[in-house]
């Protein structure tokens, strides 16, 4: 009887040890199968989960616009007073709902494609219709002298400005500002130039690309990384490494994202590559995520971040490259004096605030972030925010610009492009990825804990029984 009892206790301890060892062995084995499955499903080729979400975004993407309305137009035009601005919005459009076009899977494990540009107005998600009027800077009057700097040409421009009765400020509809209108000043110019102007002219029914990205078939660490943009590795707008096309398009990243990584992504909207750093852990629809944000260092002056020196192309605007928070992208906008900042001059130097009134930066509302599922590298939620400004320069030859006292960035609008995985896609993602990983980790933990408890319990009982018998 005693032998049977001792044998039973010893057998229980052995079973517990086996369970704990098996649970421990499941960790590397399970990780191996997870890694193998993820590597297979994140390759961008027909038939994978990644491909399905890559061709058309796995969540609806919206672009919201807030316009800066000038509240004191007469004082600005007559006396050169600082514009007093109030924001009006959002005016919301659905974008990126068309599939990528001309997709070609190349022999070198790359995929080439074009991204269609499309915007569909969403009245139910907007504060008003597209024909709402906004008083803002006159796009053509400010842009023309920046593009044509000859004194003689500017004298002619002033003549055409006067004959068209154009002023420094104008009132236009939301639709006109965004997608274009025939400008009376440009119509007066007897040259074969485009007579329409708009912030995003042309946009609808155009294509962004050609993009060529790595599929990840040969090396998953390169999945979705851009190999070339418009058949080139560089943009032609900046000096040195600033001109490189780096990272992905932000929709996804190579799998197994780590917190200490710097994630780089390219945006044709701002004509440059940029980066995100880990900020916090998030949870969306029961899916654990890593939030990466675009940090202040990405917009800092070269005095703070020396790597930004090659983004400083105009020392007059940047005050000898000491200003932070403003990016002159005129080189990629055909010479138009476009300045990109974050909304309300977030992270910008105080000097930028001196030219206008009404800027109220708010970190939570105006920062850019990407919420990434770390195992697959998929971006399941994001908010890309930026502000479009025109650089206004005093000009004694152009009548509407004569009252201007100092150069300043005139805010036109800021946008918020957002996407969040919908419930159906989230359920699919949980069933295919998150729940399986959770179940595996749960099994590992249960086996280790139950096995360890059994081993310790039976071993203690065995030792006690042996001690009692010896007495």
List the helices and strands and how they pair.
Layout: H1 2-41, H2 49-55, E1 61-70, H3 73-79, E2 85-95, E3 101-105, E4 110-117, E5 119-121, E6 133-137, H4 139-147, H5 151-163, E7 169-173, H6 174-179, E8 181-182, H7 184-188, E9 196-197, E10 206-214, E11 226-229, E12 262-267, E13 272-284, E14 287-293, E15 327-328, E16 338-341, H8 350-353, H9 363-366, E17 369-372, E18 379-392, E19 408-420, H10 423-470
Antiparallel strand pairs: 1-2, 1-19, 2-5, 3-4, 4-10, 6-7, 8-9, 10-11, 12-13, 13-14, 14-17, 15-16, 16-18, 17-18, 18-19
Helix pairs in contact: 1-10
Based on CA atoms alone, the radius of gyration comes out at 30 Å
Mean pLDDT: 87
User: How much of the residues is beta strand, in percent?
Assistant: 25-35%
When the domains are counted, the total is 2
For the biggest sheet, the summary is: 11 strands, antiparallel
Q: Specify the number of helices.
A: 10
- The shape, in one word, is elongated
The overall strand count is: 19
The ordered H/E elements are HHEHEEEEEHHEHEHEEEEEEEEHHEEEH
Contiguous uncertain segments of 5+ residues:
none
Determine the structural class based on helices, strands and strand pairing. alpha+beta
The rounded distance between the terminal residues' Cα atoms is: 17 Å
Bin the helical content: 25-40%
């Amino acid at each position: 009887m005693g032998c049977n009892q001792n044998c039973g206790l010893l057998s229980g301890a052995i079973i517990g040890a086996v369970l704990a060892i098996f649970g421990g062995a499941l960790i590397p084995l399970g990780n191996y199968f997870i890694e193998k499955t993820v590597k297979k499903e994140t390759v961008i080729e027909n038939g994978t989960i990644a491909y399905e979400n890559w061709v058309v975004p796995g969540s609806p993407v919206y672009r919201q616009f807030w316009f800066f309305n000038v509240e004191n137009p007469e004082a600005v035009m007559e006396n050169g007073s600082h514009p007093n601005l109030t924001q009006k919005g959002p005016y919301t459009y659905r974008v990126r709902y068309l599939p990528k076009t001309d997709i070609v899977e190349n022999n070198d494990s790359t995929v080439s494609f074009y991204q269609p540009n499309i915007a569909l107005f969403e009245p139910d998600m907007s504060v008003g219709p597209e024909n709402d009027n906004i008083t803002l800077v006159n796009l053509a009057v400010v842009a023309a002298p920046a593009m044509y700097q000859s004194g003689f040409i500017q004298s002619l421009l002033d003549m055409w400005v006067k004959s068209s009765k154009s002023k420094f400020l104008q009132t236009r509809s939301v639709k006109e500002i965004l997608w274009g209108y025939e400008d009376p000043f440009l119509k007066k110019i007897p040259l074969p130039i485009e007579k329409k102007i708009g912030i995003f002219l042309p946009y609808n029914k155009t294509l962004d690309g050609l993009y060529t990205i790595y599929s990840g078939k040969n090396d998953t660490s390169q999945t979705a990384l851009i190999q070339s943009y418009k058949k080139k590795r560089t943009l032609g707008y900046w000096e040195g490494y600033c001109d490189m096309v780096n990272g992905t398009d932000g929709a996804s990243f190579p799998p197994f994202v780590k917190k200490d990584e710097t994630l780089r992504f390219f945006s044709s909207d701002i004509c440059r590559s940029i980066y995100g750093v880990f900020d916090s852990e998030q949870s969306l629809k029961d899916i654990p995520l890593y939030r990466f944000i675009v940090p202040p260092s990405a917009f800092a002056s070269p005095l703070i971040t020396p790597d930004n020196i090659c983004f400083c192309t105009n020392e007059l605007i940047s005050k000898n490259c000491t200003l932070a928070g403003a990016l002159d992208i005129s080189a990629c906008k055909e010479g138009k004096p476009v300045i990109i900042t974050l909304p309300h001059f977030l992270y910008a130097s105080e000097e930028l605030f001196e030219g206008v009134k009404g800027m109220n930066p708010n970190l939570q509302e105006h920062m850019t972030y990407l919420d990434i599922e770390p195992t697959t590298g998929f971006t399941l939620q994001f908010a890309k925010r930026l502000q479009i400004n025109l650089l206004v320069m005093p000009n004694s030859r152009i009548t509407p610009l004569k009252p201007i006292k100092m150069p300043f960035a005139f805010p036109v609008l800021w946008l918020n492009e957002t996407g969040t995985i919908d419930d159906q896609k989230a359920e699919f993602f949980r069933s295919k990825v998150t729940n399986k990983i959770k179940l595996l980790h749960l099994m590992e933990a249960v086996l280790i804990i139950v096995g360890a408890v059994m081993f310790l319990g039976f071993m203690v009982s065995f030792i006690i029984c042996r001690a009692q018998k010896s007495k």
